[in-house]
Every structure is written in structure tokens, then in C-alpha cells.
Amino acid sequence: MKTWHELRGFPLAVRLLLINQLGVNIGFYLLIPYLAVHLSKDLGMSAAVVGIVLGVRNLSQQGLFLIGGSASDRLGARGVIIAGCALRTVGFGLFALGDGLAVLLAASVLSGLAGALFNPAVRAYLAQRAGSRQAEAFALFNVFATTGALVGPLLGSALLLVDFRIAALTAAALFALLTVAQALVLPPVEVPPAEGGVLADWREVLGNRAFLAFALAMVGMFTLQNQLYLLLPGGAQRATGWDGAAGLVFLVGTLANLALQMRLTRALKERGARTRWIAAGLGLMGLAFVPPMAVAGLEAPPGSAGAAVLRALPVLAGALLLYLGVMIAQPFVMELIPAFGRTGLTGTYFGVFYVVSGIAAAAGNTVVGWAMDTGDRMRMPWLPWACCLAFGLLSAAGVAWLHRRRALPERTTAEPEPERELERASEPEPSAPDEETATDPDKTPANGANLLTDNPELYEARFPDADRLAGRWAEDCLRRHRAGRRVLDLGCGTGRDAAQLHRAGRRVVGADLSTAMLAYARTHHPGPEYLRADLRGFDLPGAPFDAVVCLDSALLYCHTDTELDGFLASCRRALLPGGLLVAEMRNGAFFLGRTELLDDPAVHGFTWQGTAYTSTTTLSVDRTAQLLRRTRRWSADDGSPPHEQDSAWRLLFPQELRRALTAHGFQVLELHDGPGPRTEPAWQEGTAPGAFADGDRLHLVARLTPTD
Predict the structure, then answer these.
(1) Cα separation, 546 vs 574, whole angstroms
(2) Best exposed site among 76, 84, 503, 543 by fewest CB in 10 Å?
(3) In sequence order, which residues have a C-beta less than 8 Å from that of residue 1 and are 6 or more positions away?
(4) CA 423, 547, 479, 61 torsion: positive or negative?
(5) What is the pLDDT of residues 78-136, one digit of tens each?
(6) CA distance to 139, 263, 265, 410, per residue, from 269 (Å)
């Protein structure tokens, strides 16, 4: 029930792809495990020819994952998924209809290429469409995949009682049905035009050393998963003397997966960094080989069913622990992979991951095979089990080491995201960092005593952002325009939005002038690097960046053209050629003829730590200075005296801002009044940028034009 409840919470397209994996694994496992027997016994082929056919299928899939990933990024995951299922339909159909070597090789190539196409594409689609529930989506993916891997061989065994061709045609029909369902249900998605070539994409991914290190560390997960089909079934058979005992290994795993996967993922997602759970899962996978090691080499005595059952228990316990380790680690591994880079390369990252980890796992399996042979020859039956224990512990240690070095994009429990604060040392008087409503705060300069700047906890209580709209909107802009990973968040305040971008896989530097806010950000929102800087003129270590983000009207504390030029010149120095500037602010044009925000004082109140606070705010337009001035008077019921603060924002007009950006070498890609994180209605994933610039907020995306 838990699984179906979780499934219903996803969009129809995601639900289809999750159930699709059940069909994919049923179709695959009802045919492929029996292909070698068909080729050798039914068709009379030699072992060498059988090896060639099977090798071509494996090479076509494992060797071409990178092609499938790039196709997903460049052409769109939907079309690649449909094409992959269609190719597998044709490939499995050829296995049923063809007996000649040429036809069988073509069937092998097509069925392998199909897997190379839709495997990375499906994972990329889930990563991009599941939003903040990626871990749950990949957990469900694991449930359906495991169930299909159990049902497929059982169905294949039954169909083989009739004929191999019936099994092959059944598998082909199943993939044909999946192809039609995907064509009908998966919505077309416009793919932004790619910048650069495919080789440049590959170089970018392969140049990500942290990602490659993580993929290599996964050698333990893939090597040990393969033992579900090699070492553990063999151990169960030797312990019981019954060939059917291997099926118990898969039955135990499937039942555990159905009962526990979603509960585990949901519980662990709420408890700390995902990378720690990946390391813990890998460690548990290694420890799973300790119980079977205890009975390694013991043969079941003839006729002793009770003793056989007792000897099978350690093997089944090991299988259960191995499945539990996979359940813990795998959803978070899949969730983490796209966080290493930009959204436009999600498929490529999955493709490279499976190529690198597949090669590493092949080497790992070779070591396990050597240990099995050596153990048999030297009467050391415990050796392959000990080898697997070492693989698991070494992989766990590798991930833990990468986590300690902060080399991995951290995914932690999402927290409410309030707004941020930015100081200006030149402000004549302090001011509070909020706006006229709790849903529309702006950053404010401060100099001296400032109620909210000096109390970041109070600031967050005053301006919660439970849906994390500001950070999510900024990340959406970065992804749509294919920004790289290194991001500078100017005016980071309490660090909430910087942390959100960090959780999305960015390498973030947060900059602010408030030392109190920076101290709070380092403590409460670790991950980004936090530095003190003035946005009107800065040169920061860590430059150049792929993008600069400046939210919540921080840019409007550039009160003069000189200060605005200083900001844009600093951004130009800080950005790589082609880098993005993403900003969100008040719209000066809104105040042309509109007075609804100016007519009456706005009164707001809230309670924090037992004290009731009330603010009375008055706005006025200084037309000579082109500033929106604010006076706010704070009072509290704790007996403290009232506190008055003054602040101001530059009233920038859309065409004025566009001209300034152009003068500094920026090309304006988007300039509109919404939807955005502070608009009504608010921005949501998938919402297209607006075409007007008349509302209260102004949203900007600009690209630094590369110079010759």
C-alpha cells in the first residue's frame, strides 16, 4: 500500500516510467537468461559463436551508454526513451524469427543499443521531473526493477516449456506495448538549443574529477549487486543441495524491497546528508557477505533437510542484508548523479557513470571470479566472500572520504527558505531587511544597530519561505540556460538560497556585507563558502564563476549610476565568458502612475520566542534621486523602546537596466515581471517566463557576451 500511495503522488508521466521499468525487466529477464541455451541447444551453435552473440549484445549496451546519455540531452529524453523501447521490440522479435548468425548479431546489436538509449534517458527524465522527490522516485524505480527481475525469469521458464520463440515474441510484444504507452503519455518537452558540440559535453563531464572519483567508488555497489546472480545463488545451492534454492535469494530480496524500500528512503532522507547514507549502504552491502562466509565450503549432508535449511539461513541472511544495503544506497546514488553538473548534461552524466562504473565493476567481477577459483583450488572457500566484504568496505570508505573532503554535491533535508539581507556601509542609518508583506521581502542595507540584521534567527522567523521559491527559481533559470556549476550568490544573507543552490549540485560562494548574517549562514546553512563583500565593487577568490545570482532587490542598493556600473563591472570580471547574471528585484516602472503601495502605512506583526513584534512601514518616492524610500518603526511588547529605520531602493526601469547591461557587454535573455518567487501567482516549475515588464517585480537573465 505504501508503494502505491507514493506512486500516486507523482505526475502521470513519471508513474508510467516507474511502471515501465517493471515491464522492461520482465521482458528482459524472461528472455536474455535463456538466450545462451537457445543458441547452443536449439540452434546447435558452438560456444565461441554463442560468446560472440552475447558479447556483441553486452558491448552494444555497455559501450554505448554515453551515446544514449548525450542523445537524451541533445534530442530530449522522451524521444530517446521511445526509440529505445522500439529498437528492443525489433531486436527481440529478430531473436524469435531469425536463425542465421547475421540476423542474431543484428538482434543483439539492436537490443543492446536499445538499453544504451533508454537506460540513461529514463533516469535523466526521472531526475528532471521528480523535483525535490528524486530519492523517492528512484526508490520506486528500484522496487519495480527488482520485482520485474523476479517475475521475468519465472514467466520465461513457463514460456520455454512451449518454445523459445514464444518467449521472445512475448518479450517483443511487451516492449511494443511500452513503446505505444510512452508515445501516448510522455509529454513533448522543448529542448533548449545546445551550446557547443557533443565532444565538449563529454570533456566537461570527464573533467569533473569529483564525479569520476564517485563513479569509481561505486565499484563496490555494482560488483556486489552482481553477486546476487553468482556467489549467493551458488552458496544457497551448495548449502541446501537443492538447485531451486537460488530462487529463494531473489524471493527474499523482492519481498524485502516491496515491504521496506519506501519506508527506508523516506526515513533516511529526513536524517542527515545523503552521502553518509550511501557510504552506510555500501558498508552494509560488504558486511552482508559475513554470514555466508561462516558456512562457506560446507556441503549439505544427503537426506538431512533440517541441516540444509539451517545452513541456508546464513546465506539468505546475507542476501537480505545485501538487498537492504542496495535499498539504502541506490536511490541516493541516482539522486546524486545529476547534482554533479548542469541540467543540460544530466543524461551524459548518467551515461558516463554507467560506462565508468561498468568497467570498474567488470574488473571487480574478475577479481571475485579469481577468488572463487583460487578458493576452490587452495581449499579456501571463504576467500570470495572475504573479497566481497573488502569491496564493500573499501567503496564505503571511498565515499566517506569524498564526503569529508566536501567533494560531493550534498543533498540534505530541505528546509524552509526565507529571504536574505545585504548591508551597505555607506547607508546613513540602519534599516531592516524585509519588505511590505511576509511573502515579498527585499534585502536592506544596514550600518549599526539593525533589529533583523543583528538577529538572523528573527529575520528567518519574520520571512519564512517554506517552498524555497527564490532558490528554486534561480536554479530553474540556471538550468534552462545551461549554466555551469560555479555560482556566486551576491547578498546571500542567512544563506538559505545559497544552500538551496548547493543542494541542487552547484558549487556556491555566498557573499554579503553583514558579518552577523555570514556567521549565521556558516553555522546553519553549511555547504557554500561564505565571504564578506560589497556588491558595488568586489573581486573575490574563486573567480571566475559560471553565474552570478542576485535576488530580492539586492541590485537596487546601487543608488547611483556609478554604483550600478561598479556592480556590473565587478560581475563582468567575476564571470566566465558566456556566464549568466540572474537577478530579481522591484520594478521601477510599476510606480509610474501607481500609488497603492504609497497611500497608507502598512502594519504587520508576528511573534518570535514569546515576544510580539509590530512594524509600521511608510513608503515614498524620491523622484529627484530616483529612489523608493522606506521608513519603518518597530515596537515590541517586551518593554524595549521603539526602533525606527530608514532605507531606500533604486527605482530602475526595464529599458534603463537593459541599456546598462548592454554597455557592460551583457546580452539580455529575459526581462519580465513574472511569474517569479515574489509574484502573485508565484512561479512554479515548468512555468514559462513572461513577456511584459509592468508588474511590481522585475526578473532578469543576462549572458556575458564572449569577447574575441
Answers:
(1) 9
(2) 543
(3) none
(4) negative
(5) 899 999 999 999 988 988 887 788 888 888 888 888 888 988 999 888 887 776 678 88
(6) 11, 10, 6, 12
H-state helical runs in 288-423 = 290-294, 305-336, 346-377, 383-404
Beta bridge partners of 230: none
Contacts of residue 398, Cβ cutoff 8 Å, sequence gap at least 6 = 213, 216, 217
Distance of alpha carbon 470 from alpha carbon 476, whole angstroms: 10
Amino acid present at 74: R
Decide: 25 and 149 in contact? Cβ < 8 Å: yes
Q: Which amino acid is at 649?
A: W
Amino acid 499 reads A
Residues 6+ apart with CB under 8 A from 593: none
H-run or E-run covering 508: strand 507-512
Pairing of strands 507-512, 529-532: parallel
CB contact at 8 A, 86 and 118: no
CA quadruple 134, 139, 142, 143: dihedral, nearest 10:
-140
Task: Count the residues in the chain.
Answer: 708
**Rounded to an integer, what distance in angstroms lies between the CA atom of residue 346 and that of residue 549?**
22
CA atoms within 13 A on the CB side of 118: 26
Spatial CA neighbour of 220 closest among 367, 337, 395, 389? 395
The three-state DSSP-derived secondary structure of 39-65 is: HHHHCCCCHHHHHHHHHHHHHHHHCCH
Report the DSSP beta bridge partners of residue 575: 545
Q: Which residues contact 374 (CB under 8 A, 6 or more apart)?
A: 380, 383
| φ/ψ (deg, to 5) at 619 | -110, 145
C-alpha dist (Å) from residue 317 to 380, 427, 669:
22, 68, 58
Q: By C-alpha distance, which of 486, 438, 448 is closest to 342?
A: 486
Locate 144 and state its grid cell: 519495480
pTM listed for this prediction: 0.61
Q: Is residue 702 within 8 Å of residue 666, measured between CB atoms?
A: yes
CB atoms within 10 A of CB 13: 17
Task: Say if residues 649 and 557 touch (Cβ distance below 8 Å).
Answer: yes
Strand (E) or helix (H) holding 117: helix 101-129
Measured CA to CA, the distance from residue 442 to residue 460 in angstroms comes to 13
Task: State the Cα–Cα distance between residues 518 and 431, nearest whole angstrom.
Answer: 17
- Which is nearest to 182 in space by CA: 347, 4, 18? 18
State the Cα–Cα distance between residues 555 and 537, nearest whole angstrom. Answer: 12
Phi–psi pair at 185, nearest 5 degrees = -100, -40
Count Cα neighbours of 25 within 13 Å in the Cβ-side half-sphere.
17
CB contact at 8 A, 28 and 174 = no
Q: In the chain, what is the straight-line distance between the N-terminal and C-terminal CA atoms, in Å?
A: 61
- Cβ–Cβ < 8 Å for 235, 315: yes
Q: CA–CA separation, 433 vs 210, rounded Å?
A: 37
Distance CA 416, CA 185 (A): 34
**Beta bridge mates, 582:** 549, 701
Whether 178 and 59 have beta carbons less than 8 Å apart is answered as no
Task: For strands 575-586 and 697-704, give the pairing.
Answer: antiparallel
- Helix (H) / strand (E) containing 510: strand 507-512
Regions of the chain where pLDDT drops below 70: 1-5, 34, 36, 47, 131-132, 190, 192-195, 243-244, 297-309, 343, 410-451, 453, 466, 707-708
